[in-house]
Every structure is written in structure tokens, then in C-alpha cells.
Amino acid sequence: MNEKFDWTFGLQWVAACSLGIVLLGMLAFASIWSVGEVVEKALGETAAFIAVGTLFGALFGLGASGGTGLLLRKKGISAARWIAYSVIGGALGGMIGFGVTLSLLDAEALPEVVTGLVVGVSLGLPMGIGQWLVLRQVGDGANAWPVISTITYVLALMIGLPLGGEGREWLSLGVIGLLAGAISGLGMMWLLRKQPALA
């Protein structure tokens, strides 16, 4: 069966996701240190990890979903729900990934690839489940979306995080954004593919 993929949509998806992750990721990096410092002084290190994780996850979810939500609106999918569920899923995932997992482990001693795996699963799965709630109207193929989302962020973060460091956050976020956009874009193109009419 010959299926039609919308490559223009796919390229727009990569651009929207990449740009959103880079811009809001830089905002997240700029704000989490000051927020984390204040919360740590007031409530301790675990509370700081939870606050930082929640803020980072929410901004990451907004960055990944803002532009892509506008693209989905053109396909008849609610942009507001896509963005809201992504932000909520990102916040919950960030709280779990940073707050629980990284505060229980020695975050400084973890290799960045392992941190990418942990944070990728903790962001990708809840964001994917939230987004699946919006995508269910598309059909049964939407059931694969939480897996696609989890794989997307695991790979993007495992590859992108080790490229970062003091003054190189933009490089790390750029790679994460491009990979997240490309992988999730292919998944969304597959999900929204058009099948030609039978003659």
C-alpha cells in the first residue's frame, strides 16, 4: 500500500520543535539556577530538585509543543489541549526525573548519558501520555504515541546532554531540539499519513 507522507509538515515540525526547545530551554537554564538556589536555601536540596525539575519540565514541554501545537491545529487537532497536556506532562516528568530520581542518586556523579536516559524517560513518557489523550481522535495509530515520545526524548537527551557544559548549553539544546523534532516529526508524519483512495 502506497502511503503519502506530508514532508512539508515534517520540516515545519522539526523547525518548530527545535526552535521552541532551544529558546525555552535557554530560558529554563537561565531561571532554574536562581529558583533552585532560593528554594534550596529555604527548603533544602530535595525541594530544590523538585522545584527546578518542575520548572524545567514545564518550560521544556511548552518549548516542544508550542509551535507543533499550532501545526496540529491546521490538521484539526486542538492546539490548546496539545500544549496544555504537554506542559503538565513535562512538569510532572521534570518533577519526577529531577526531583525524585536525581535527588536520590548522586546527580553529579552520573554520566550525562545516564542522566539523559533518566530525564528522557521521565519527560517523554508523561508528555507522550498527555499528548496521546489529544491524538486519540486520529485513530488507533495514536496508541503508539507515548512510545514514540519516550524514544524521542531518550535518544535526544542521551545524545544532546553530553555535548553541553558551561557556555555550551545552546549546542546541547540545539542537538536535543533537532533530534526531538526529527524523531517526533517522523512519528507524527506516520500517524497523520494519508492513504490514497482506492480506485
What does the model show?
Helix content is 78%, strand content 0%. With 199 residues, the protein is mainly alpha-helical. α3 packs antiparallel against α4 (112-135), α4 packs antiparallel against α5 (145-160) and α5 packs antiparallel against α6.
User: Low-confidence parts lasting 5 or more residues at pLDDT below 50?
Assistant: 195-199
Give the number of helices: 6
Which percent range describes the beta-strand content? Answer: under 5%
Overall number of structural domains? 1
Note the topology.
Elements: H1 7-43, H2 45-73, H3 79-104, H4 112-135, H5 145-160, H6 169-191
Helix pairs in contact: 1-2, 1-6, 2-3, 3-4, 4-5, 5-6
Briefly say what this structure is.
The chain has 199 residues and is mostly helical. α1 (7-43) crosses α6 (169-191), α2 (45-73) packs antiparallel against α3 (79-104) and α3 runs antiparallel to α4 (112-135).
Characteristics of this structure?
single chain; 199 residues; mainly alpha
